Amino acid sequence: MRTRTWLLGCLLVLAWPLSAQVIVDNGGAGYSELSGAWTTGTSAPDKYGADYRFASTAGTAGPATAVAEFRPTLGASGQYVVAAWYPQGTNRANNAPYTVVHATGSTTVRVNQTSGGGAWVTLGTFDFSAGTAGHVTLSNDAEAAKVVLADAVRFSPVSTPPQGNPEFRGVWVSRFEWPSTSPATWKSNLNTIMANAKAGNFNAVVLQMRGTTETLYPSPNEPLSPLIANGPGDDALAYAINAAHAQGLQLHCYFNTHVCTSAFASANPGWVIADSGGATQSAPVDGYFWLAPGHPDVQAYLRTQVMHIVNTYPQLDGIHFDRIRMPEAGYSYDTTSNARRSGRGNPDSLAFGEWTADQITRWLRDVYAEVHSVNPQLQLSAAPLGLYHWTAYAGYSSGYYYGLPRHQDAKAWLAQGALDWIAPQVYWPDGGGNPDFSELVPDWQAAANGRHIYPGMSVTGDANANETISEITAARGFGCAGTTVWSYGAANSLNFWSTLTAAGAPYELAAPSPSLGWLSNPSTAIVYGYVTNSAGAPVADAWVNVNGQAYTAVSGADGFWCWLELAPGTYAFTANDPTAGSANLLVQNLAAGEVRRVDLRLGPAGTAVRLEADPPAAAPGVNASFDIVVRVADAQGGTVAAGAYTVDLTYAGAGVLAGPTQQVTSSGVATFTLSHDTAGTLMLTFTDAGGALTQTTIPVQINTTGSPGGGSGGDGDSEGGGCTVGAGKPWRLLLPLAPLAIWFRKRRA
Question: What gap in Å lies between CA 700 and CA 28, rounded to an integer?
Answer without folding.
Answer: 46
